[in-house]
Design goal:
Number of strands: 0
Number of helices: 1
Structural class: mainly alpha
Radius of gyration: 31 Å
Order of helices and strands: H
Oligomer: single chain
Shape: rod-shaped
Length: 74
């Protein structure tokens, strides 16, 4: 009789623990995916920022003193 009562008590607890474990694993996966996405996005934005800075530096040197012509060849 005691074993039956213990089983009746433990089955819902086991089900709840299993659901909580699934939820925890899903949350860990989601956080890991979010972290990878953020790292990827940050590197992409860093690369674009460096490219933009490089273009501005090269553009400012090309248009600075002595190198600028107004489209006329001499």
């Amino acid at each position: 009789m005691f074993e039956l009562l213990l089983l009746i008590y433990l089955l819902p607890l086991i089900a709840i623990v299993a659901l909580l474990l699934k939820l925890a694993i899903g949350l860990v996966r989601a956080v890991f995916r979010l972290a990878l996405w953020l790292v990827r996005k940050s590197f992409v934005l860093l690369g674009k920022g460096l490219l933009l800075a490089f273009v501005f530096i090269v553009g400012s040197r090309r248009t600075s003193a002595g190198n600028y012509t107004d489209g006329q060849q001499r």
